[in-house]
TrEMBL record:
Pfam families: MDMPI_N (PF11716). It comes from the Bacteria. Residues 11-134 form the Mycothiol-dependent maleylpyruvate isomerase metal-binding domain. This is Uncharacterized protein (TIGR03086 family). InterPro entries: CHP03086 (IPR017520), DinB/YfiT-like (IPR034660), Maleyloyr_isom (IPR017517), MDMPI_metal-binding (IPR024344). One of its GO terms (molecular function) is metal ion binding. NCBIfam families: maleylpyruvate isomerase family mycothiol-dependent enzyme (TIGR03083), TIGR03086 family metal-binding protein (TIGR03086).
């Protein structure tokens, strides 16, 4: 990004989410997801609300129109356009944050995070929900081993404390032969082999 910080992990996570949203057919929005209480539409609303929330905390700009943890299931526009707008806002906000910055405002407890952890948890949210959407709609996983490898340090640093807030399910036991993506998903309480 010209004139700002280029956070590769966030760029890659946004591309995963973009790919997943593009892959949803007209009949895919009501399908069940690994987030058992939400369908594909609700997972997308949650994911986009989180991206907007991070942007709003950093810039003081707009916050999500609805609670990302109680998504209505009704999209207020074209899914791809809504996704692009949320990801643009997030990327632009993070571009203003230099590496190594301490105490970046965050919607994630405790409310301020060191830059690399903050952008990492923002990227983790986009990437894992991209995986949720892709799995729910029978698409290939957009969560590559390389992206998972980049996200694992943040997941190990922040996910366990966030479980107390209901943000993640309990971790699943690792399996021999898991790659980085499977290890990350199990740490987040997801079965890498989940199907609808």
């Amino acid at each position: 990004m010209s004139g700002g910080t280029d956070w590769t992990v966030l760029t890659d996570a946004h591309e995963a989410l973009r790919t997943a949203v593009r892959g949803v057919g007209d009949d895919g929005w009501a399908r069940p997801t690994p987030c058992t209480q939400w369908n594909v539409t609700q997972v997308l609303q949650h994911a986009l609300g989180d991206q907007i929330g991070f942007a709003g905390f950093i810039t003081g700009g707009p916050m999500p129109d609805e609670d990302p943890f109680a998504p209505s299931g009704v999209l207020g526009g074209d899914p791809q356009e809504l996704a692009e707008a949320a990801m643009r806002a997030s990327a632009a906000a993070w571009a203003t944050v230099p590496p190594g910055t301490a105490d970046v405002p965050s919607p994630v407890p405790p409310g301020k995070l060191q830059a690399e952890l903050g952008v990492g948890i923002c990227a983790l949210d986009a990437a894992v929900h991209a995986w949720d959407i892709a799995m729910a709609t029978g698409r290939p996983s957009p969560l590559t081993p390389a992206l998972a490898r980049a996200l694992l340090p943040t997941a190990h640093a922040l996910v366990d404390p966030l479980r107390a807030f209901g943000a993640y399910a309990p971790a699943l036991q690792p399996h021999e032969g898991d790659d980085e993506a499977a290890s990350l998903l199990r740490h987040l309480g997801r079965d890498p082999h989940w199907t609808p």
